[in-house]
Amino acid sequence: MNKVRIGVIGLGTMGEQYTRIYQVHPLAEVTAIADSKPDRLEEIGNKYKVAGRYGDAESLLAEAPVDAVCVATPDFAHYTPVKQALEAGKHVLCEKPFTTDLAEADELLGLSRSRPRQKLQVAFNHRWLSSYYQGYASIRNGSIGKPVAGFARKNDTIWVSTELLKWAAQSTPVHFLGAHDIDLMRWFFASEPVEVHAYGSKGVLTARGVDTYDVIQAQVKFASGAFATFESAWIYPNTFPTIVDSFVEVLGSAGHLHFDRKRESIEMSTEERFSYPKVFLSNEVFGKLRGAFVECLGDFLSAILNDTEPQVTAFDGRQVTAVLDAVSRSLATGQTCAVTPPSL
Ligand SMILES: NC(=O)c1ccc[n+]([C@@H]2O[C@H](COP(=O)([O-])OP(=O)(O)OC[C@H]3O[C@@H](n4cnc5c(N)ncnc54)[C@H](O)[C@@H]3O)[C@@H](O)[C@H]2O)c1
Predict the structure, then answer these.
(1) Taking residues 14-19, what's their average pLDDT?
(2) Residue 1 pLDDT exceeds 70
(3) Which protein residue has the closest C-alpha to ligand 1 atom 3?
(4) Whose CA is nearest to atom 36 of ligand 1?
(5) Which of 17, 35, 243 to mutate to test the pocket of ligand 1 (most atoms within 8 A of CB)?
(6) Which domains does the chain have, with CATH numbers?
(7) Which of 73, 87, 253, 296 has a CA-to-CA distance to 57 between 20 and 30 Å?
(8) Half-sphere exposure in the Cβ direction for 229 (13 Å, CA)
(9) Is the pLDDT of residue 285 over 70?
(10) Relative to the CA of 123, which ligand 1 atom is closest?
(11) pTM for the full predicted model
C-alpha cells in the first residue's frame, strides 16, 4: 500500500480538519468525503479538491476506493457509519465519544476485536499533547508515587452549545467535553472506573432553547481505589478569554501534576478583546496544521501501515462510554451507579 486512501464522513469542524491534514500527508490521500448537507459537501470537496462526494456513509463505503474512514459525525451518530465501515473491511478512526450508547459501544468493540487486521482508533487526541504525555510518563516511572486522586475541568463558553454545535441538545457537556478527561484519567491511573455519582444542573441552556445540562460534575471511583471528579460545563460567558477552560490535576502519594491549558502559553489583546488563542491541540505553522491532532492522525496511519495496535483502541472508547452511561444513570436516578464492566 503506497498511500492510505481515506474517506471522511461528516464534514463539520473536525471533518474539515481531517480532510485538510490527510490531503497533504505524505502517507495518505483523501479520495472521498460524505456529508448529509449537499452545500457543505460541495464546499469541502472544492476547497480540498476531493473528487469522490457522497450524501451518506453507506454510498461512500459501497462505491469509493477507500482503505480507511474517519467518522466525524455528531456525538450520537458515530455507531452506524463505524459499523458499516468495519463490515465493509475498512480501518476506522472514530471521533470521541466512541458512541453515546453502551450497547452500541459493546457491539462495535466485539466487531473490531473479530477483525484485528482492521485498525480502529478512537480520536482521544489529548493523549498526543506533549504535556499530558510527559505527565503520563512521569506517573508510569513512579515520579509522583501512586495516583490517589484526580480532578478535571473542561468548560466551554456558551457560544459552543448555542451557536457552534447545532446538535448540543442531543449531547451533554460530559459527552462532548468530559469524555476526553475520563480517557486521560484512566490512562494516568492505569485503572478502570467502577462507580459513578453525578450531579447536574439545567436552566440556562433550556431557557435558550437547547435542552441539555448546563454543567455536570461526576465523581468516579476506580478499581485501584483512586477517585476523580470531572466537571464539564457549557455556559461560560462569551467574554471568557478562551473557548475552553481546561485544567487537569493528578494527586499522587508522593507528588502532583497540574495541567493548565487555559492560557495556552499565549495571551493577546486587541481593541476588541483580550484572549488566549488556542494553540496546543492544533495550530498552523508556515501554512501547515501541526500539533496533537495531527500526530493522532499520523499514528492512525502508522497502525495501518505497520499492522500494530492503535494507541487508543475500541476498548478505550468503550470504557469511556461505560462511564458516560453510568453518569447518565446517576443523573436520572440520583443514585451512585456501577460502571458496567466489559463482557468480553
Ligand atoms: N477530538 C476533539 O478535540 C474534538 C473537538 C470537537 C469535536 N469533536 C467531535 O467530533 C465530532 C464532530 O464534531 P464537529 O464539531 O465537527 O460537528 P459539526 O456539527 O461541526 O459537524 C458534523 C457534520 O456531520 C454531518 N452529518 C451529520 N450526520 C451525518 C450523517 N449521518 N452522515 C454524514 N454526515 C453527517 C453534518 O452535516 C455536519 O457537517 C463530534 O463527535 C465531536 O464530539 C472532537
Answers:
(1) 98
(2) no
(3) 125
(4) 10
(5) 35
(6) 4-125+292-313 (3.40.50.720), 130-278 (3.30.360.10)
(7) 296
(8) 9
(9) yes
(10) 1
(11) 0.97
